[in-house]
Amino acid sequence: MTLLEKLRCLFTFGQGVALPLPEIPANKSPFELFQTWFDDANKSGILLPESMSVSSCDQEGQPSSRMVLLKSWDENGFVFYTNYGSRKSQELPEGAKVALLFHWSVLQRQVRIEGVVKRTSKQQSEAYFHSRDRGSQIGAWASKQSQKLTNSSELKDRENLYKEKFKDKEVPLPEFWGGINVEPSYIEFWQGRASRLHDRLCFEKKGGQWDIFTLHP
Q1: Strand, coil or helix: 196
Q2: CA torsion angle for 79, 80, 84, 90 (degrees, to 10)?
Q3: 81 and 109: one domain?
Q4: pTM above 0.90, yes or no
Q5: Element (H or E) spanning 204, and its range?
Q6: Same-domain check for residues 59 and 88
Q7: What's the CA gap between 125 and 48, in Å, rounded?
Q8: Which of 78, 105, 176, 199 could bond 191 through an S-S bridge, CB–CB 3.0 to 4.6 Å?
């Protein structure tokens, strides 16, 4: 974090950022603005600015949230990777509604995203899987994510099992593991301001176009 950024944090702590959002052109893409904000978060020194909350609901309507890491995004959506047998994946089948939240406290900024789930292709999942370190690849095989452990040594035993199974071999992509792409229909940029008169700039997709509007804080 630069000296200027540290001073800005000091003088705006608890009161939001002094400057309002700039004027947004009518044809501005929310993905362009997200890129700018993500770059700002990265420059601020925040640890893991790609961290985001993923919220889903089960069949009884019980919501649940968890933190994951954003791995890529473009105009088709925001992508993270997971075990398809996990609770979040069971609650997020193809076409399910989902909400994401980024919170960058140092910048007094949040980004709220609502959309629907689409799984990434096997090719995309495989490319990302093999970009991970070998330990994480083995871990994907070893973990029966969200299932109860039968004993304290089960996970370590499974890790050793797959280390031996794939010894001196490429670790293959598990059939139960891959990417989830969130195709957004609503993206809100929240900027902290003094006196809690925050900026809320919203993009809502209608008929293939983004409608831009602001909300009361």
Answers
A1: helix
A2: -80
A3: yes
A4: no
A5: strand 199-206
A6: yes
A7: 21
A8: 199
